[in-house]
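Reviewer 2 asked us to include a model.

Predict the structure of this chain.
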Amino acid sequence: MSDEILRSYRLSSLEDPSDEMLYAIMKKVAESARESTKRAEEKKHEMLAIALENAKRKLNVSYE
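Predicted model (structure tokens):
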């Protein structure tokens, strides 16, 4: 199913999506969720690395 058709479709109580349309919508949602989770994990690792470096720097300054 084309991205254009998916983007133009709107869920409503007046019209049920076909099985193919529902599958395509859920597939896109799952892909988006995986990408978002991956970006969040990468950001978390970056922030933890920065926090670790800051903690190391503070410990070195405190005990010198």
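The longest helix spans residues 19-62. The radius of gyration is 22 Å. We have added this to the supplementary material.
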